[in-house]
Amino acid sequence: MANAASVVDQFKGLPMETLIGAPLKAACDSQVQLAQATADFIRQVGQLEDGKARMSEFRYKRPTYDDKGIQNGSEEVSLEVPMLAVVKVPSLGITSLDITFDMEVKSSFAEKNSTKADATATASWSGWGAKVSIQGSVSTARENTRSSDNSAKYHVQLHAEDRGLPEGLARVLDILQASISTPLPVTP
Q1: Who's near 118: CB < 8 A, 6+ residues apart?
Q2: Residue 93: pLDDT above 80?
Q3: Per its UniProt record, what Pfam families does this chain match (predicted)?
Q4: What pLDDT score does 129 carry?
Q5: Residue 95 φ/ψ, nearest 5 degrees
Q6: Are 180 and 79 in contact (CB under 8 A)?
Q7: SS3 for 8?
Q8: Taking the complete model, does pTM exceed 0.85, yes or no?
């Protein structure tokens, strides 16, 4: 039971507010950066310094027809279009955030002890016509093995996707697109 208590002790002192709160704060900060990127894009691509819409002029030739509907030539025309109406405005947003905290404690304790001892003895004596010899030998061996394993897993998964244009920006773009008039003949 003492081993189970030491496994529980592994969980004490974990900074849960950091493990869970830090990814949430990072996701919030990321959302702010994404919104700022959209605002910067609109200012840099869609507006002039005076706040007016940046326009793009398109010139092309279109056929001209007589009163009977027969093509009798072509004329060069131009069309001014707001830049924000012809480019994709980035609008990414975080749609889900999964924080998974798995802690796996492996307190595998292995201890291996072995002791080996050898002893030999020989005795010798000589007398009355007999000869005796003594020899002695002692050897010992000892082996200790100890191992421990602790591991933890921390997984943060973030999913961001294009959430489409905000309603306000969509309405502004509708107004800008409505301002696109019929192509006008280019005067030399």
Answers
A1: 137, 138, 139, 140
A2: yes
A3: DUF2589
A4: 61
A5: -105, -25
A6: yes
A7: helix
A8: no
